[in-house]
Amino acid sequence: MPTAAAAVAATLLACAAAVYYLDGPAEGEGGPGGSSATPSGPPAASAPADPSASASAGYVPGYARAELTAPDSGYEFDLKAGKVVAAETATWYLARDGRAFLPSEDSDAFVAEGGELTVADCLRGIETRPASALPFGALARSRPFCVRSPDRGEIAIVRLVAASADGSVTIAADQYRRTA
Fold first, then answer.
1. What's the CA angle centered on 130, arms 86 and 50, to 5 degrees?
2. Could you say which of 24, 30, 90, 145 would form a disulfide bridge with 78 (CB–CB 3.0 to 4.6 Å)?
């Protein structure tokens, strides 16, 4: 029959294993949920953005999780205001060009490999792998993208939610503003 000390030690070991399994290993350790490989190249998508990560990149949250639907190509997404407006009325927008998005002139864009994007991921991606095209076919719900405003003071992290045959397009967007 085990002693009380042995039972406590077994319980602690079980808890530590559960935490390791659920949280994953520390960075640089291998094992379930972790990798010993060091990532290289432009950013892949990372953990969901949180306000402290955005603030550390010099940006603060504006609007969050705005789900917007443009009924047809006569409308565009006003990324500054987080709303749908008539075409050619917003200064920082995301318009449609057939089956693709068209950011406003002098805006920069980056398409993630999948998962979530942070403001820091967007800034790094725009500087290392800017996107010149944003076709709907390449922007599944699991592949977010970001658009930086022409004045570089704002960033929108966008997901294509739906692009229907009737011409309507729905996106979900989060916007961040530079603090300085």
1. 80
2. 90
Helix, strand and coil percent figures for the chain, each rounded to 5:
20, 30, 45
Within 13 Å, how many C-alpha atoms sit on residue 98's CB side? 4
Nearest to 149 by CA among 67, 70, 80: 80
pLDDT in tens, 55-95: 557 999 999 999 999 999 999 999 999 999 999 999 999 99
Cβ density class 120-135: b for 16+ within 10 Å, e for less: bbbbebbeeeebeebe
Secondary structure class of 104 (helix, strand, coil): coil
Amino acid at 61: P
**Residue 34 CB partners (closer than 8 Å, separation 6+):** 24, 25, 26, 27
